[in-house]
Amino acid sequence: MTRAEEPDTARLDGPEGDPPALLIRGLRKSFGGNDAVRDVDLTVAPGAFVGLVGPNGAGKTTLLSMAVGLLRPDAGNAWVAGAPVWPAQDADRAKALLGVLPDGLALPQRLTGPELLTYLGRLRGLPAPVVRSRVEELLDVLDLAAAGRTLIGDYSTGMRKKIGLAAALLHGPRLLVLDEPFEAVDPVSAAVVRAILDGFIAGGGTVVMSSHAMPLVERLCDHVAVLDHGALLRAGTLDQVRSGHTLEEAFAELVGARPPARGLSWFGS
Ligand SMILES: Nc1ncnc2c1ncn2[C@@H]1O[C@H](COP(=O)(O)OP(=O)(O)OP(=O)(O)O)[C@@H](O)[C@H]1O
């Protein structure tokens, strides 16, 4: 990996002089000959709620995975409140500030939700009484308390998403990076997750979330970044990106989506 030089964060300071909550410079990743992410730059101000959108295969998961330290970039780097994410051995400060919900999170199948959260809380260095009360509160709020004795291997997809979110929130991060947090989550739980994220932003946190649900992004996010074929097509405030249209219309226009010329041949004529 080529290490990008740490940029002059002062140049990118927000109004209060804080460094960006997340700064991405020149992140790049190829798989074989496939350029999944091509030299992406993105600056996320503290307190922003950013929706990362893009067609299937655009590179969203690859970009977010590199930005949080889960996937080694071919080039570039990311900084969380000025702390580097790469190289991995220098990432302790960045990781302490980060809460991550990765795509397809591999969870231990033989633990219950409370066991997993308790283990992660202790691993994060939180005192036992703090872990106990936070775990109880998270399970209660996310409607997972009744499944306290169920093994994670027996969880539904939505329950797995929610326990992943609980794990991301447990240590009180300042930046949440969430890969499709609402996927497979029922409407009642989605309202709970929205309220949690609103509260997180109101408390001064920052959220970067990938999603395919445009109405949800319009409802929650104040900034949007559009990724296609590994490159950032547009990034700005929600109003800048949708420029007088719905986000769905603006997205289709940006990525050049066209309705199919014809239906499937075997569906009759
Ligand atoms: N581990 C991998 N090995 C090989 N190719 C990969 C790997 N991970 C991702 N890719 C490729 O990189 C590209 C970007 O994939 P990525 O999962 O980042 O897209 P995405 O925007 O998150 O897609 P989706 O919206 O469908 O989740 C795709 O062409 C994908 O096939």
TrEMBL record:
Question: Where would you say this protein principally sits, based on its record?
Answer: membrane
Xref: Pfam families:
ABC_tran
Signal peptide segment: none
Domain (ABC transporter): residue spans on this chain: 22-254
Q: Which GO terms describe its molecular function?
A: ATP binding
Matching entries from SMART domains are given as:
AAA
Q: Which CDD domains match?
A: ABC_DR_subfamily_A
Please identify the protein, giving its name as recorded.
ABC transporter ATP-binding protein
